Amino acid sequence: MATVEEHPGEPEPAPPAAPAPPAPRTPPPTAVPLDRRLLGWEVWLVLLLSLLGPTVSAVISLAGALTAPEGLAEQEANLIVSYAERPWLDLAYQLRVLAFGFVPVLLALYLLRRGGGSARSIGFDLRRPGRDLAVGALAAALVGTGGLAVYLAAQATGLGVTVVPSTLQQAWWQLPVLLGQAVKNGVLEEVIVVGYLLLRLDQLGWSPARAVAASALLRGCYHLYQGFGMFFGNIVMGLAFGWFYHRYGRVMPLVVAHTLIDAVAFVGSAYLIGRVDWLPGA
Length: 282
What we know:
Blueprint: H1 36-50, H2 52-67, E1 76-80, H3 87-101, H4 103-114, H5 129-157, E2 162-166, H6 174-203, H7 208-221, H8 228-248, H9 252-272
Parallel strand pairs: 1-2
Helix pairs in contact: 1-4, 1-6, 3-6, 4-6, 5-8, 5-9, 6-7, 6-9, 7-8
InterPro entries: Rce1/LyrA-like_dom (IPR003675)
Pfam family, one: Rce1-like
Keywords: Hydrolase, Membrane, Protease, Transmembrane, Transmembrane helix
C-alpha cells in the first residue's frame, strides 16, 4: 500500500488569521458636572469680565457728577468716543473695542456648552428669525419710546445727565461703527444679563422673581452714569425683559430689541442732536 510521504522538516501551514477586533470607539464628550460652589464662582467671574467693571465705573461717574459744582443736570455722559485724531487710527481703536466686546459672550456660551447646555438653551439662535425680528421690533418701539420719555423727564427734573451717544468723527466709517456698537451692546447685555445669568441663577436654586429682580438691578446699576432717571428706567426694562425670557425662554428677540433701540439712538443722535430743539445735547 502506498503511503503518504512525510516531510518532518517542513512547517505546518498556519491557521487562518482571526479578524482584527474593531477599533474602540471614542466615547462622546461628557458635560462637566455642575457644582454649586464652582457655579457661583463662574457667574461672578463672567460678570467681572463683562459688566461689573462698567458698573463700578458708572457708580464713580455718578458720584463725580453729583459732587460737581455745576450739578447733575449740567454734566454729560459720552457713550461712543473717538480715541485718536487721525481717522484711520481711530477706526483701528473702534474695531478693537468692538471685537473684544464680544469675548465675554463667547466665554459665557463656552461655559454653557461645558455644562451640558448651548446657545439654544437660552434661545440665542436663528430657529425663528421672522418671529424674533417681529417681536424684537415691537419691543424696541415700546421700550424705546418709554425710554426716551424717561430720559426727557429726567432732563427736565434735573435727575439725569445729558447723554451724548456718539462723538465720533464725521468719517465714512461712522455709520458702520455705530451699528456695530448697537449690535455689540444688544448681544453682550441680553445674552449675559438675561440669558446666561437667569439660567445660572435658576441652576443655583434662585426663585424666578429673585433672579429677574437681580438681573434688572444689575442692568440699572451699570447705567447709573446716565443719572437716576435712566437708572430706574433700565430697571423697568430689565424687569420686562426678564419676565419675557422667563415666560418664553428666548433671548434672541431681546437682542433684536436692544440692538434696534441703540441703533436708533446712536444713528439718530449723529443727525438730530444740535438740529432739533427738544433733544438735549450740543
